[in-house]
Write a structure and sequence with these properties.
The complex is a heterodimer of chains A (about 110) and B (about 110). By secondary structure, chain A is mainly β. In chain A, about 0% of the residues lie in helices and about 50% in strands. In chain A, strands 2, 4, 5, 6, 9, 10 and 11 form a seven-stranded mixed β-sheet that branches. In chain B, the strands form three sheets. In chain B, strands 2, 5, 6, 10, 11 and 12 form a six-stranded mixed β-sheet that branches. Chain B has a four-stranded antiparallel β-sheet with strand order 3-9-8-7, with no helix packed on it. A two-stranded antiparallel sheet of chain B has the order 1-4. The relative contact order of chain B is 0.33. Classes of the chains: A mainly beta (about 110), B mainly beta (about 110). Chains A and B meet through strand 4, strand 5 and strand 9 of A and strand 5, strand 6, strand 10 and strand 11 of B.
């Protein structure tokens, strides 16, 4: 049972490039989330999804897009990367309104 | 707006000593409260949660937390700290609107001295 799997673990982008962070979970969880973590700032919610085909914005959605075509996958798309998007990104899932999130190991992104 | 405040950025505790990490929240209704732990280079792991009922909740690794509505607090405690407890600790409140999400505090880094 792999849990929540994120790829890649590390990536360096140039300003203006685009990329997709992949997230997959094998626990059949309906709810999935993308957070970013910056030093001393805790975690900020970017987007979340309550099921396939349903997504909604969190606290800091600007510069990102998501899709949820299947229960298992929740990719995060960065368009026109900016230095402000340098961060560690965490994908998480939960079975419902429990608040018990299962996190991936994170993807460290640097934009230069 | 909902928010979580962790007043202590960094705490150092001697191994074997007791620990208390503070957390205050702002939320209009009865909150769902959580403590998560993050070891270096890892994702977050749930330590414990409070939904309702007994205000003292037990978690994994010997941690406990007490919900105090009058003080809007949910402090994390451990009677005797081990060196392996060194990590970053996050308090969070569950926000249930159209979907569900957690609002996290900024975290407290725990160092354990020998």
């Amino acid at each position: 049972n792999a849990g929540v799997t994120q790829t890649p673990k590390f990536r360096i982008l140039k300003i203006g490039q685009s990329m997709t962070l992949q997230c997959a979970q094998d626990m059949n969880h309906n709810y999935m989330y993308w957070y970013r973590q910056d030093p001393g700032m805790g975690l900020k919610l970017i987007y979340y999804s309550v099921g396939a085909g349903i997504t909604d914005k969190g606290e800091v959605p600007n510069g990102y897009n998501v899709s949820r075509s299947t229960t298992e996958d929740f990719p995060l798309r960065l368009e026109l990367a900016a230095p402000s998007q340098t961060s560690v990104y965490f994908c998480a899932s939960s079975v419902g309104h429990t608040g018990e999130l299962f996190f991936g190991e994170g993807s460290r992104l640097t934009v230069l | 707006a909902q928010s979580v405040t962790q007043p202590d950025i960094h705490i150092t505790v001697s191994e074997g000593a007791s620990l208390e990490l503070r957390c205050n929240y702002s939320y209009g209704a009865t909150p769902y409260l959580f403590w998560y732990v993050q070891s270096p280079g890892q994702g977050l792991q749930l330590l414990l949660k409070y939904f309702s009922g007994d205000t003292l909740v037990q978690g994994i690794k010997g941690f406990e937390a007490e919900f105090k509505r009058s003080q809007s607090s949910f402090n994390l405690r451990k009677p005797s700290v081990h060196w392996s407890d060194a990590a970053e600790y996050f308090c969070a409140v569950g926000v249930y609107q159209a979907g569900t999400a957690l609002i996290f505090g900024k975290g407290t880094t725990l160092s354990v001295s020998s």
